[in-house]
Amino acid sequence: DAEITQSPRHKITETGRQVTLACHQTWNHNNMFWYRQDLGHGLRLIHYSYGVQDTNKGEVSDGYSVSRSNTEDLPLTLESAASSQTSVYFCASSDRASGRTEQFFGPGTRLTVL
Amino acid sequence: SQQGEEDPQALSIQEGENATMNCSYKTSINNLQWYRQNSGRGLVHLILIRSNEREKHSGRLRVTLDTSKKSSSLLITASRAADTASYFCATEPYNNNDMRFGAGTRLTVKP
């Protein structure tokens, strides 16, 4: 069955370190998204991609970057982790080619920055 | 900024009762979607209603959309303990494909 996976599921890091969160989907979806979820804020869009070599900034992109070298993967990099980036991160994908916009979510990565 | 805002923030009901959650948004939309999130899990898509639709059903779910009031409601009928979760509305704005999520309603269904 097609799925979307995230790794690691839990990560503890120190302020100033570079961290990369992986997202891999086997849906063959064009669109991929990264969100962060914090209490009281719902999900906020960090970056998104509509296809290979395409990346776009979302609502809260400062301090984060993504790259899309193939259809399946959209890694999220925190260039220099800050305590404010402690959060739960969700990756999602959708199939723009079909015109359907509902998103399929991964299980999340809980990141703690000390 | 959040596009959708759910109301209430938390709702507690007995099994068998109906649960109604509301969502308000600010800009013109292509569609509005409802998602469910169980504790510690990712979101799962429940239902999508397009801007030219007023009501949609899926099993025990009923969604309404009032574009003049920029609001939507999600009704879960005959609730079960397994319906305990957080429910989020998400809006796809008219002029782009980025969905905006609200902060969610935490539903607790007591057996």
Structural description of this entry:
The complex is a heterodimer of chains A (114) and B (111). Chain A is built from no helices and eleven strands. Chain A is mainly beta and 114 residues long. In chain A, the strands form two sheets. In chain A, strands 2, 4, 5, 6, 9, 10 and 11 form a seven-stranded mixed beta sheet that branches. In chain A, strands 1-3-8-7 form a four-stranded antiparallel beta sheet, with no helix packed on it. In chain A, strand 4 and strand 5 form a beta hairpin. The model of chain A has no long low-confidence stretch (mean pLDDT 94). By secondary structure, chain B is mostly beta strands. Chain B has no helices and eleven strands. Chain B has strands spanning 5-7, 10-14, 19-24, 29-37, 43-50, 55-58, 61-66, 71-76, 85-93, 100-101, 105-110. In chain B, the strands form two sheets. In chain B, strands 2, 4, 5, 9, 10 and 11 form a six-stranded mixed beta sheet that branches. Chain B has a five-stranded antiparallel beta sheet with strand order 1-3-8-7-6, with no helix packed on it. Chain B is globular. The N and C termini of chain B lie far apart (36 Å). The A-B interface holds A 31, 35, 40-45, 48, 50, 58-59, 90, 92, 96, 101-108 and B 1-2, 4, 30-31, 33, 40-45, 48, 88, 90, 92, 97-104.
Can you give me a brief rundown of this structure?
The complex is a heterodimer of chains A (114) and B (111). Chain A has 114 residues and is mainly β.
Write the layout of secondary structure elements.
The complex is a heterodimer of chains A (114) and B (111).
Chain A: E1 4-7, E2 10-13, E3 19-25, E4 31-38, E5 42-51, E6 54-57, E7 64-66, E8 76-78, E9 87-94, E10 104-105, E11 109-113
Parallel strand pairs in A: 2-11
Antiparallel strand pairs in A: 1-3, 3-8, 4-5, 4-9, 5-6, 7-8, 9-10, 9-11
Chain B: E1 5-7, E2 10-14, E3 19-24, E4 29-37, E5 43-50, E6 55-58, E7 61-66, E8 71-76, E9 85-93, E10 100-101, E11 105-110
Parallel strand pairs in B: 2-11
Antiparallel strand pairs in B: 1-3, 3-8, 4-5, 4-9, 6-7, 7-8, 9-10, 9-11
